[in-house]
Structures are given as C-alpha cells and as structure tokens.
Structure prediction request, 779 residues.
Amino acid sequence: PDSPTRAHHTMVGFTVTTEYPTAPTVVDDGAPGETLEIIPLGAGSEVGRSCVIAKYKGKTLMFDCGVHPGYAGISSLPYFDEVDLSEVDALLVTHFHLDHCAAVPFLVGRTDFRGRIFMTHPTKAIYSMLMGDFVRLQKGADPNDVLFNDKDLQASLDKIEVVDFHQEVDVDGVKVTPYRAGHVLGACMFNVDIGGLRVLYTGDYSRTADRHLPAADVPAIPPHVVIVESTYGVSPHSPREEREIRFTEKVQSILRRGGRVLLPVVALGRAQELLLILEDFWKQNPEMQRVPIYQASALARKAMTIYQTYINVLNADMKAAFEEANPFVFNHVKHVSKASELDDVGPCVVLATPSMLQSGLSRELFESWCEDPKNGVIIADFAVQGTLAREILSDVKKVTARNGQELQLNMSVDAISFSAHADYPQTQHFLDTLAPPHVILVHGEAGEMSRLKRALDAKAAADDKTMNVYTPKNCQPVEIIHKGESIAKIAGVLAERDVEEGDHVQGVLVQKDFGTMLLAPEDVNNYTKLRTSLVTQRQLVPTKVPLATLRFALEALFEGLHTVTTLVAEDDDDADAGTKGDDANVAEKKPRAKKPKKEITEIEGGEDKFDVSKADGLSINNDMVTVRKRFADDVTGAEHVIIEWNSDPLTDMIVDATLSAILQLESEPEGLKEAEAGLRDAIKDKDTNEAEKWRLKVVAAMLTAQFAQPVVNVKKAQLTLNIDGVEAVIDYRTRTVMCDNEALKQRLDTTVSRIDEAISDAAYGNIVHSLSGTSTRMT
Prediction:
C-alpha cells in the first residue's frame, strides 16, 4: 500500500529558484543538516558476514546479510542484536555468495525483521539452490550450529522481490537502483536515494571484464557516500591474460610430474571462469586431453542451466558464442558429486567446494593428497582469515586434519587470484570518477583497510579534493551530517502565477515520503489523496454585556484590520432581511455559503433551540465570525452570546481576541465603566481638570478590584487605603506611596506603575487604553 501522505497545515514560505525542468520549484536553503548513520554489523575490518545498516530520515536499509566462513553456527552471523531489526525497511542483497546472503533465512525466520528483500533475477535463482544445499549439509551438523531450516528458507524466498539492472524501485519513498558489479553472475551494486542523499553500496565488484562477465558500471549521478569493499587493499592485480598463463602453466607443471591438481572453489562464480579457461586450454593442447577435469559439485552442474538462462547479463563475447553453441557445455569436463566417483589413479584436475577448505569434498581431497609432493593446490579465490586456505598460504609445514591427526604439507601451494574483487588501481579510478565526499571501507582486513585509507587520503590531497575516508570496525557507527536542499515543487494555481527567482510564495506544504509539493489550499483535493473538510464551531459565552458596548470594544480592538457590522434577527417570513446599524457601518446581509447549517441540538417538534439566525448580533469580516446575543431561556438559563466561525488558524485567532474582549468587559470593576466614560468625555471636551478628576476615579476603581475601596481626595489627588488594618496613602500627582509596611508599600508602587501603563497619560494627548478595549485621544 502507498505510504500515508502528510500535510503540514500551516502556511509556509519558500524562495523560488529557476532551476526546474517542468514546474517551478522552491528551495529552503536554511534547512538544517540531518545525520546519516552507517553501522557495519559484519565485514567491518574483516572479510566475511557482510551486513551494513544505513539510517537516514527515519528510513533504515540493510545491505547484504551473510555468514563468516571462518566460524560456525551463531558465531558466524552478523551482530543483529546491535539494531532493532523490526525497523529495517528493506534488505538489499548484492549477490549469491554465502558471505553476502547465507544469513537471510535466519533473518527472516528467526528475528523481528519485517522489511522487503531485493535481489536480481539470477541472484535469487542461485540463492535458492545454494541455500537448499546449505540446509541439506546442516542436517548432519551439531544442532547448535544449525542456523535455519527449510521453512525459514521458504519464508525468505517468498519475501524476495527481483529487480533488473538499472531498474528504479520505490521503497516507501527510498529510490533503489541496482547497477552491474561484475564479480559473479547477477551481482549488483545498489544506489539508494533517501530524501536527496545518495548512497552507493558496491558489495563485491570488479571493474575488469573477465571471460564471461562485463565490468562493473559507474553510476551516472555521483553519490554523496560510497560504501566500498577493500578486500585487496593497495595490492594490484596482474593483467587477466598474464594470470591465465600463470594458472595454466602451474596446472600443466603439476600434471607433468604425475600429480593431481586441487582447485578449491565456490560452486558458482569463479568456478565457471576457471572451467572456461581450462576448457579453452585443453582444446588448444590436445596432449592435455588425456587428463580428466572433474567438477565435483552436483549443485554446480544444476546451476549451469541458470547461466544458460541469463545470457543477457553475460558479456558480449559470451553472447556471441551462444549464437553458435553453448559455451557452458564443456567437452573436457566430467561432473561428479563425491570422491568415490573420481578416477583417482593418476594425474587429474578437480574443482571442489568449498573454496576455503573448511569442510566438504575440497577438505577431504586436500587431506588425502597433501602429503604427496607431486600434488598441488591452487587457491584461486581470496583466502579469508581464520580458514585453512589462509593457513596453508602462510608457509606452514604441517596441518591438522578434521579427525585431529597431524598431516605433513608436502604438496605445492600457490595463489593465483581470479576472485573478481577490485584491486587498488580499480578502486582508486572508480572513486576518482565518482568523487564522493565520503567513502566508507568495508569487507577488508584491518591492515589492508588502513593501508587503503592512507593511499586514498594521499591521492585526494594530491588532487586537492575533499574526501573523508572511514574504516569502521563491526558495530562501530559512522555518522555523517548531510545538509541537502529542501526542494518543493509548486503545483496548481500557484504554478500559474508569474514568479521570479528570489520571490516568496506560500501555501500548504504536502509531503509524501520524500517528495514535497507546495499547493494553494483549494488545490489540495486535486493534487493529493487528502480531502479537506470544513469545521464550524460554536461557543456559548454567558455575558450581560450589551451588543453596542461589545461592538464598540471590537471596533477599537480591530481598527484597521477587521470590519465589525451589526446583524439583525431573521424573521420567519423573511429570512433574507438585511442588516441594520448606524449610517457608517450598515452592511447588507449576505448568505453564509461556507457555513452549512448543523443540527446542534434537536428537541421534540424539531425546533433548534440554538437557531442563532433568530437573534441580533455582530459580524466580523463579512460573517467570518458572528456573535449573536441571546437572553436567558429554558436551555441555558443565562443571558449569553453565541460565537460561530469556520475553524482555521486566522479565524481562530480573531475568535480568541473576541472572547478575550467579552470576558474583559464582563470582569471590569464596579464604577470603572462610568469613570472611563467620564474620562473620554472630558478628553473630548478638552477639559483638563475634569480629565484629571475622572482619571483619579479610574485609578480608584482599579485599586478597589485588587485591594480595597480607597477614600479619594480629588483636591489633593490622594487615595487612602486601609488594608488589613494597615493604612497607606498614595499621592497620585507625585506617584508617591506612604506606608509603614515596606512590603505593602512596594506592592502599591508596582500596582500604580502598572495602572499608569494601562491607561497611559491622557492629559497630554497620548492614547488612553481602557480595560474595555476602547481607546480615546486628547487633541
């Protein structure tokens, strides 16, 4: 289902920019930066169990989810406990190698993960086969090492959604695009756009084409952050042709001395590359054809149909070869599924799994052949730390068999890499092209990562570029502040207006996921799934304030901002009666089209006791707000006004001010209205002596409301109060308070100052502010 659309109901302002292809856009350059958090749950300063979390703007993505080949059981998994897996929106799996995908069934079946899963078509097809084989092999293992079962695997397969290279997928507003990564069939890099922040996760990639796969793509739009593998650190690969020659010469050398050649491989991926090389070499050298080549993997044989199915993702040479024949039908390769099927009586070449010699047929053959110096093993993949493959490359003389027996390592050991991981020149050129401001290294041992970081830092400094390189360990977060532009497209009637760069526009800001539009309120229904509604509010306020007094107060309060007119009750026989008022303020009664009548209260006979149209009242801004006066009745039992308005931010503020004026008029101290009226008349007549007398009475009325009624001496302009037996005298001409009680004296000083601020200095032509909200001026 679509994500909910959110509307910010406040009117917001933006600045117009002219850089738009089809519709105007507005940019908020003052938007604060937000934090991108990258957390390696695996492959942080290590090779294995690739799993990287990215969090930004409330979205959480997981890149890859594999196991570590050097460990077993729970220990081989990524550090899932470090994050809340229920918050992960999507898992993006780059390819089918176990260190990138083998923890997916566990994630789906044994954790709180509820997100979506994406892979390319070939990756899902091979993942299904590999994981099925993984489950089968676990059935004979220690129960503590069993990570998942067939049910978990099927649950993961049901969740996987397949994508094509360069296909953009929307995941709750996050734009996900896979690019070719080389490496193995179907491998991809994922470029994600989260609210304008672009992050590229390479997974395992190679920028050099091999015999059956094209090189990795370079995204057309540079990312802000690149999460890149550092498997080979600063080491360069020799050219592919040179490595092929070294490989075939080494194989030929072992066979000529009567030995057997063991090639530990992953069932799918580099195995196919080596088979293509060997098939071609055997074809060109007839004397080699008497030596059998065995592919000891039933899984690899079944998976060959997948290679034949997905010809479209292979390189141009393979596509051309398929026009004549299937290049994956090998004439010199025999398929076997167990050691007993080997014709182990003379020289032969065996490709056996797994590539790290940890278990399986490759381990069985290694233990059988390692003590014979005529035999040889060639490690053609990257040897992960903690595995037997890595151990024998360190020039050891003895190894320990699975049964604990110590074996002499007499066979030759060579490493000729065909692992299709990027080397330093590839990584450097790739990053030079993309020029990201931030690079996060993963999938590399700590030493190699550190060396690569230093090399990249030095290259960036030499090129005078800003590139921040990070080398996090597992569970060590990298936080990057990204300040991007906040861009909103203008649509509807706002887009029809002539605007120039730098102009300010305002409207309703509507956001869906990370897309934002600025609309006029009347266009919200047309451009979104939102529906507007009109809320008419009524408030009953008990008050005895006459309408004329209230109108006078409101006119003074809203002077120059809002108009106040008089409404008359509608007769039953003439609902269209006009309004009446004094000559300057008579306004024709207009129908209130925006206010559909509501059934507020129903009684027997259908009469609406709150039919406000039958009462006199006031109209503010042509019925934006109406105030109807009603006398005590059977429903309310008190004289009151009913305020009615259509709710919106502006009208709500007008109603608040109106209500405040009513309550203020209602709560005025006794005698204050008379004193204020006398003061206004004196000011109008320009009678200074009378104005001073009435002003003193205004002060007396205010003091009465707060303390007690004072004795007023108009001649001396003094007010004498007795408060709880303590006498105080206020000389109003000098604003002096005389009192023996210091605390009371200070209170009266403060009160007199505040009264002066409230009524101002009317005697000298300043505005006099009354508590009723009216104002007068002596001129």
